[in-house]
Amino acid sequence: MELSAASEVFLEHLERVRRLSPATVKAYRSDLRDLSASAGAIGVEDVDLEVLREWLWRATQRGDARSTLARRAAAARSLFSWAKEQELVAHDPSLRLIAPKRGRSLPTVASQDAMATLLDVQRSAAEGGDPLALRDHAIVEMLYGSGIRVSELCGLDVDDVDLDRRTARVLGKGSKERVVPFGRPAGAAVEAYLRRARPALIARSSSSSPALVLGSRGGRIGARSVYTLVARVLSPIVGAETVGPHALRHTAATHLLDGGADLRAVQEILGHASLGTTQIYTHVSSERLAATYRLAHPRA
Q1: Catalytic residue from among 149, 166, 198, 255
Q2: Is the dihedral angle over the CA atoms 8, 150, 179, 71 positive or is it negative?
Q3: 145 burial class (0-12, 13-18, 19+ CB within 10 angstroms)?
Q4: Residues 123, 126, 131, 133, Cα dihedral to 10°
Q5: Is 297 an active-site residue?
Q6: CA distances from 220 to 154, 157, 204 (A)
Q7: Among 43, 153, 240, 267, which has the highest number of CB atoms less than 10 A from its own CB?
Q8: Can 144 be counted among the known catalytic residues?
Q9: Are 262 and 160 in contact (CB under 8 A)?
């Protein structure tokens, strides 16, 4: 079987059997198509370590980031591990493939004062009654108030939200379902949106949608629209141009830990499979603590 054909079968396996998220499958597809382009028309059984090393070397020469190289190496290892299980190859050539370690940078986080100001501005805009302003206020409050991913927000249906208990049932990575809490301000913003804005937005569509958050044409909102909104309102307060919905997730997690939340509780709220993924936020909180000490202590 040709490498490109094997890759497509493997991607279908990831999507249908392992039920990885669409974003993960999309990233693997990009990586494996790049590998096929680099290797040429070659059978999957003919790929050896030198072919894989040449592929990563070309990516390095293009200036790909270390995180991209590490992800591509992981995609190749997953492909050939699967191919070995399926007896498409006799030996796994990726076992000795070494990629540069990811450089771990701390996430972009807004301060609590900055978030309070941002949300005050969003609430004031929503008070005018414009459907999109009401929706945008609910989006920002929910992303910050619950720490959910943008894909999870876009996937919410109206019935997934319990305003009395202030919880949302979300479908996370790997199709794992969890229930996340959110606070009173987010609940109030969502309630106002449902009552005053959503009927006006759904009237713009020829069909009814069960989606909680609607786009300007009345259909389920897309991740790109949410990204554009968050980048517009959040970038000025964190001083970064490339900032999106995940920054609100980072901010929510950091503020939970700053407020004394247990690390494992934060892990459950965020839906992280590994506690190690959540622990990066303890570094953010520690850096803030150190910065406060340096500014405030007379002998710092």
Answers
A1: 149
A2: positive
A3: buried
A4: -70
A5: no
A6: 7, 9, 12
A7: 153
A8: no
A9: no
Walk along the chain (300 residues) and give the pLDDT tens digit of each residue: 899 999 999 999 998 888 888 888 999 999 999 999 998 889 999 999 989 998 988 888 888 888 888 889 999 999 999 999 999 999 999 988 877 665 556 677 888 899 999 999 999 999 999 999 999 999 999 999 999 999 999 999 999 999 999 999 999 887 889 999 999 999 999 999 999 999 999 999 988 899 999 999 999 999 999 999 999 999 888 776 668 898 899 999 888 888 888 888 888 888 888 887 777 777 667 666 566 557 765 555
Rounded distance between C-alpha atoms, residue 143 and residue 230, angstroms: 10
Closest among 106, 101, 103, 92 to 47, alpha carbons compared: 92
| Distance between first and last Cα of the chain | 65
As a whole number of angstroms, the longest Cα–Cα distance in the chain is 70
The active-site residue out of 173, 178, 196, 220 is 173
Helices (H), the chain: 3-16, 22-39, 49-62, 66-85, 112-126, 131-146, 150-155, 184-196, 198-202, 223-238, 245-258, 263-270, 275-278, 280-296
Please pick, among 28, 144, 193, 281, the residue that the annotation labels catalytic. 281
**Per-residue tokens: 99:** 């990629």
Q: Do residues 70 and 38 touch, judged by C-beta distance below 8 A? A: no
